[in-house]
Design goal:
The complex is a heterodimer of chains A (165) and B (193). Chain A has three helices and eight strands, in the order αβαβββββββα. Chain A has two domains: 1-44; 52-164, Immunoglobulin-like, CATH 2.60.40. In chain A, strands 1-3-6 form a three-stranded mixed β-sheet, with no helix packed on it. A three-stranded mixed β-sheet of chain A has the order 2-8-7, with no helix packed on it. Chain A has a two-stranded antiparallel sheet with strand order 4-5. With 165 residues, chain A is an alpha/beta fold. In chain A, strand 4 (98-100) and strand 5 (103-105) form a beta hairpin. The longest helix of chain A has 42 residues, at 2-43. Chain B is an alpha+beta fold. Chain B has a single domain (28-192), classed as Glutaredoxin (3-Layer(aba) Sandwich), CATH 3.40.30. Helices cover 37% and strands 26% of the residues of chain B. Chain B contains five helices and ten strands. Chain B has a six-stranded mixed β-sheet. In chain B, helix 2 packs across helix 5. Classes of the chains: A alpha/beta (165), B alpha+beta (193). The interface between A and B is medium-sized, with 22 and 19 residues.
């Protein structure tokens, strides 16, 4: 019995000796799989297609609104980031003048507003039910932690907008 | 040969135009493209003569909206504009600040003159009836809403200023909060254009 027991423990010990490196490798792989996206999010340079965040009033918007169709033109909150996407570009493609964001825009006219200071800017805007539009301008995410936080916020906003639609 | 030469000249003109556009100094203010003629108006002013944009053709006009009892935004903006004019030195003679009230009931010509003189005696106030002032606000897309403040009242109003060039074109809109140096920077560009 003792021999059997000893051999049993011996077999178990030998088996765990084989399993230990496998377990370690698996744990390492899991850790890497979890860490790699975080490392990427922290260290990969941020890129956006354009420094301009473009919002347009499509042609026919006024007529459709007059017909009772609720047409959101601008989001209540616009998020910009210094050095990355820090220019608000509004364009009126409709046939009539429109109050668009902070200003009255003629048909075919665009309004390009650059931001140079991180802050929250509030503009009166009759296009919104709240009567107000907010432009949140974040500082340039220069450090890995800031890039990570910036990407997390962008992901969160994307998830929220997707779940709202 | 002639069509080829014509095409070449057109191309060169296009390239030169694009380069000039690319090299144009950028304003700190928001820019309208294309700029439209600034809506004209004629209102009683703080100096006794009607104020209109036509009166200041050839100068750069900074158009601000507010009211003399404003506790924060207007004093800040007017102080900033006074600082910008000081920074411009002699060029300030070609810059006219016009401050249009949104408070027709309280802001008469005398009150505006006294108020503006504390910032810069060259500033001009524009007043009028509620209808006249409302029409000007509508033309520029300016919001102003009367809000009760205990026994009295105030206004929640648009805080940006308009920059109108020497030719009377509405070129740009400066959001609230910019420094005097930003105004001076943009005004120099507009004075030179």
């Amino acid at each position: 019995m003792r021999t059997t027991s000893a051999s049993y423990w011996g077999r178990d010990s030998a088996r765990s000796g084989v399993r230990r490196p496998l377990a370690r490798a698996a744990a390492l792989a899991v850790a890497l799989a979890a860490f790699a996206p975080l490392a990427w999010a922290a260290f990969a340079p941020l890129r956006v297609a354009s420094r301009e965040a473009l919002f347009e009033i499509p042609r026919g918007t006024f007529a459709r609104r007059m017909a009772g169709e609720p047409l959101p033109i601008l989001p209540d909150e616009i998020h910009l980031t210094l050095g990355l996407q820090d220019v608000l570009l509004l364009r009126n493609l409709d046939d009539v003048p429109q109050i668009f964001g902070p200003t009255l825009m003629m048909p075919g006219q665009s309004f390009r507003l650059p931001f140079r200071q991180a802050a929250s800017y509030s503009f009166a805007c009759t296009a919104h039910a709240s009567g107000q539009m907010t432009v949140d301008v974040d500082a340039h995410p220069a450090t890995p932690w800031a890039r990570l936080a910036w990407r997390a916020r962008a992901l969160w906003r994307w998830v929220r907008s997707e779940s709202a639609t | 040969m002639k069509p080829a030469l014509s095409l070449l000249l057109s191309l060169m003109t296009l390239i030169a135009g694009a380069r000039a556009h690319a090299e144009a100094p950028e304003l700190f203010a928001g820019v309208f493209d294309p700029p439209r003629a600034a809506p004209e108006f004629s209102l009683p002013s703080s100096d006794g003569e009607p104020v209109s944009l036509e009166r200041f053709r050839g100068k750069v006009v900074v158009l601000a909206f507010g009211f003399t009892s404003c506790p924060d935004v207007c004093p800040t903006t007017l102080t900033t504009l006074a600082g910008a004019r000081r920074a411009l030195g002699q060029q300030a003679a070609d810059v006219q600040v016009v401050y249009v009230t949104v408070d027709a009931a309280r802001d008469d010509a005398k009150r505006m003159r006294d108020y503006l003189a504390a910032f810069d005696p060259a500033f001009l106030g524009a007043t009028g009836t509620a209808q006249q002032l409302g029409a000007v606000r509508e033309a520029y897309g300016v919001a102003a809403e009367r809000v009760a403040r205990g026994e009295s009242y105030a206004f929640s109003h648009s805080s940006f200023t308009y920059l109108i060039d020497r030719a009377g074109k509405l070129r740009a809109l400066m959001p609230y909060g910019h420094a005097a140096s930003d105004y001076a920077h943009d005004l120099r560009i507009l004075l030179g254009s």
